[in-house]
Amino acid sequence: MRPSKRAPDELRPVSLERGVARYAEGSCLVKFGNTHVLCTASLEDKPPIWLRGQGRGWITAEYGMLPRATHTRTRRESTSGKPSGRTQEIQRLIGRALRSVVDLPKLGERQISIDCDVIQADGGTRTASITGAWIALHDCLKWMRSKSIVKDDPMKDHVAAVSCGVFKGTPVLDLDYDEDSAAETDANFVITGKGGLVEVQGTAEGAPFSEEELLAMLRLSRLGVARLIDMQKDAIA
Amino acid sequence: MRPSKRAPDELRPVSLERGVARYAEGSCLVKFGNTHVLCTASLEDKPPIWLRGQGRGWITAEYGMLPRATHTRTRRESTSGKPSGRTQEIQRLIGRALRSVVDLPKLGERQISIDCDVIQADGGTRTASITGAWIALHDCLKWMRSKSIVKDDPMKDHVAAVSCGVFKGTPVLDLDYDEDSAAETDANFVITGKGGLVEVQGTAEGAPFSEEELLAMLRLSRLGVARLIDMQKDAIA
Amino acid sequence: MRPSKRAPDELRPVSLERGVARYAEGSCLVKFGNTHVLCTASLEDKPPIWLRGQGRGWITAEYGMLPRATHTRTRRESTSGKPSGRTQEIQRLIGRALRSVVDLPKLGERQISIDCDVIQADGGTRTASITGAWIALHDCLKWMRSKSIVKDDPMKDHVAAVSCGVFKGTPVLDLDYDEDSAAETDANFVITGKGGLVEVQGTAEGAPFSEEELLAMLRLSRLGVARLIDMQKDAIA
Amino acid sequence: MRPSKRAPDELRPVSLERGVARYAEGSCLVKFGNTHVLCTASLEDKPPIWLRGQGRGWITAEYGMLPRATHTRTRRESTSGKPSGRTQEIQRLIGRALRSVVDLPKLGERQISIDCDVIQADGGTRTASITGAWIALHDCLKWMRSKSIVKDDPMKDHVAAVSCGVFKGTPVLDLDYDEDSAAETDANFVITGKGGLVEVQGTAEGAPFSEEELLAMLRLSRLGVARLIDMQKDAIA
Amino acid sequence: MRPSKRAPDELRPVSLERGVARYAEGSCLVKFGNTHVLCTASLEDKPPIWLRGQGRGWITAEYGMLPRATHTRTRRESTSGKPSGRTQEIQRLIGRALRSVVDLPKLGERQISIDCDVIQADGGTRTASITGAWIALHDCLKWMRSKSIVKDDPMKDHVAAVSCGVFKGTPVLDLDYDEDSAAETDANFVITGKGGLVEVQGTAEGAPFSEEELLAMLRLSRLGVARLIDMQKDAIA
Amino acid sequence: MRPSKRAPDELRPVSLERGVARYAEGSCLVKFGNTHVLCTASLEDKPPIWLRGQGRGWITAEYGMLPRATHTRTRRESTSGKPSGRTQEIQRLIGRALRSVVDLPKLGERQISIDCDVIQADGGTRTASITGAWIALHDCLKWMRSKSIVKDDPMKDHVAAVSCGVFKGTPVLDLDYDEDSAAETDANFVITGKGGLVEVQGTAEGAPFSEEELLAMLRLSRLGVARLIDMQKDAIA
Prior knowledge:
The structure is a homohexamer of 237-residue chains. With 237 residues, the first copy, chain A, is an alpha+beta fold. Chain A has helices spanning 77-80, 85-99, 104-107, 125-146, 177-182, 211-236, and strands at residues 14-18, 26-32, 35-43, 58-65, 111-120, 159-167, 170-173, 185-192, 197-204. The radius of gyration of chain A is 18 Å and the shape is globular. Strand 9 of chain A pairs antiparallel with strand 9 of chain D, so a sheet runs across the interface.
């Protein structure tokens, strides 16, 4: 039995609360159990110079963690002088995930900045970020259409993400911090509403894993993402 | 009449919510109207080297703002490479304010780190931070006594802070962002439960101000801080 | 009796020497006792981009300290990679103080950079800087008028600054380093020629201070600034 | 047909040249076609403080690229002030890959630093790095045994890596730069001598990919890694 | 007798291998004994802004060292955040040396970047860099003429460099690392094909040196540079 | 005739004022014409860790320039984030020059920091710095002997420096800024009281220079340094 007492294919309680940031064009507070991430989408007034003449827009993402989101306090990245390698890896992942479901030419030469700030961290912050950021982006695009900034909806599909792991030989869904620390293998899956794979990242923490384990985790993640996308649909309804 | 329609001596609706951060030894979500700050107090396991042999403890503070706490998105400080001058000024202010009401030798050679992270900003983030951080610090000290880490209560008094300004010639209390932008003079007051002054910072934004205006703002701030301290007392009751 | 043997309302010997920097448009070596600051005013050939189209000018200030201005050698800020929080706080203070007495639209879209470099430090470096920088700025503006770069004099008033403190219960004027270290309270006042307050910054170093102490320090500072402004008038005569 | 005219399951010409760095404890110049990486393994005389008392060793990796390894010159990272996110991501990947086949307690409290410097870049620099770094690490461990620094061989298995992609709908092995730029999907696989998966990283560059494509790429990568490991065996024979 | 057993006026075995970098406009792998430097010359597509309107071109140089080029591993400069003082000093030297033999107006408003990356270091890396970089620059200019980017040959002369030292009282040519560590005096000479001096840098490592020693080293360096320039001529023939 | 109207072998008016910094163990304000440098010598209370167990001391040097020491304002190095290459080159030169005349073992395991801050710059700041820093160091060592921190005098000899150049074909001594800008060749010489050469740095600014020119400059510099050392002797008499 897993530490959280959940069934192998059971997600933590998930909530997606829209419109939580008064000034942002789109926002969502996403909770995967005790992992809480505030996601905002900001239409930038000054898109970057390199976008000019490209005939398309861009979605970029930044990720941060409050110093005491974690069990013991983490050093603030503004103090250490630069985002860590881990932070940059997650930022790039969130950006790629969202861009995979947006028709960038329909955005025009505009940039939307996604900020995912972890208020509380109990494992799975990157997958919660992607799942919540989709809502923030959706609402930003909706606002842009309401202001006639874009005409057609640039959003092509849903996208959500979930982690899986192999815990004491059993593939399990949506690891919390304790499970993640104890898992032999850790994988993240980013999957679209139509079931297409956007990112598959599997890492052995110790012993290598087998093809069967990879496939079992992929099956679990499909189940999990399908449920998350249903919740996204409910949230924006 | 002031932009917010409030009376000159009227605070914004204030709330102080304790215990909002699952892992921190003390925490408080403070709201001054639309200004929301998450304050945590963390007992550091590794106090800084310079504390050794001092026979006393230390309280330090860090301050941050989520990129989209503001009307238009602000650049993340971890990206710009260092905390801005404004950030450092506020950090030092919060630290000094809290240390003024703590008996540092009673802490022992330990450091408590206060983090004030602005979730939403509508003026007065530094005064809200001090007011909420006192609660977080109080709860951290309470937790330390419950664990017998300290014996006597190191907390000597309450401390809270509020801003004042002169708006179209009238001294007013607790400026929001619109009022702050339009005020001729802007002042911050940090005051203890016994009425002692810890910090007085008045700045002319344009024309200089008079001694009478300084004194009128000081009177208003005494009223405001007294109410804030009453709310602190209710919160910890 | 105070450590310096001075009367409570007695300034240190002050001198203001003009024209000390061969290449600067304006300069002043200011001495408050053993505190010596070299102030220069430089008309920048390339004003910052953001000034364009504003229809007004800007005064900015930078502050530095030679490594051995102090009793023990201080680390050079170019080595530590960035100006400290204290340096940035002082820079912002000097800039605000000078801008409060300059008619910025009369400057045109030009920037004047003030540099205050502490050659020797014995307390009160920020107040000496403001007092001396006014002379440097005055001479820079005079030079600009002589070259017909500006037509009307943008300088509206004098401005000077002085510190006060409460030492063993007695309010005293113009603290030197030893007095500053021993004072219970430390305050800086920036005041114009017409007596308007530009900045009031009072900080308790330990026990809070009372309203009476604040007012007593304000009275002392008015006396001190009036004398400093008389010396500025003599210097430019 | 793919741009390189190779068959879908055909590697580029691979070579592994040992002992190329006069001073390093182990080294290998690896070539995957026009991609050339110089890998060295250095036994550090001063292991990091955090290793003390852990009862085990550590393998860390750094990755760099000469400015003109690429078609157009790339900015030197020492000039831009910090390793890029991409560089850090690759460094972490190389380190994890090698640690997965080393018995860290057998190393003792020692650190081996792997440096992978790209002399020429034509796609697949991270997979070539891992494949060549294994040789450098092998030779460093051999040297350590010859000096009786370690007794038992800490190396548990081979590890190598290869990229795959989907090019015009066909899964292909070992992408060069032109193929990588044109591929719809890009995946990297790190696999051990016994066939265990250490890392699986698949990324859609545009349209999502299917489970079938993932599995086809996994099959190709198994073929490719098996051949690379045969070459490693020849090299160390 | 010197540690390397060479005669006082004997160079180490030197080789100059052209065209070693597939993508660079010019390149040379230069070896002075066990010192190996890869030199490339890159025609920049975007010359720096300050070149515009100057009516002439520029040659700039960067220098780096692979972490394990040295006997014990050296920290990577991208990790330490900035090029060291030594690195910058060498970069400026290489740039000046090459510019002294190029007719910059004939280049047009273009910049060529020279990169000298030390693959293996056994003393004399800066002198080997200059000697090899001349070949890389020569080939880059030849390529530019073949593409009609420049019409007349901007190269005016050869330039090469060599070190000398005083070892146990005897002036010797082309120090390797062991000799450099033991020498009382260390000097570098950059000399053109026509025998003009471009740089003379002599430094006492301990006791000062005499004019006679300086002149003896200058005589040796003329011999050495003449031989290096003959090898440059052979290489480009 | 040279721009300054001086004879080819004529120094600018030189002055060496001792004891100008109240807190430093040794100090000197050196003027070479309009070039003014404040030099201080500070005995560090905490010598660097690497000195421990070496059985000898160390002299280190830092160099800075006030922003408006120059004709047009220069950016402050604390703002640009790091000392420039030029600054680091000069710092290393000053340190080496002084160490060449100090018996480091006699210092004990102590470090003296030299700070050379240019108050006004008109060419030759590095040579003035070395000449003045010798006085500051001398007085610091004298103070250390008076406090019995060292027993024997660690100072072995005088050292001073001067620049030379070739201006319109004529070798001239001690270039000011205008002459330096116009000179074809620029050289700095650091020479001891006994006439030993510590550093010789000659650089062609354009056309290479000849051996005859180098020797003529060396002769001039010997004359100049002899006079500077006479002034050092007068200053400490």
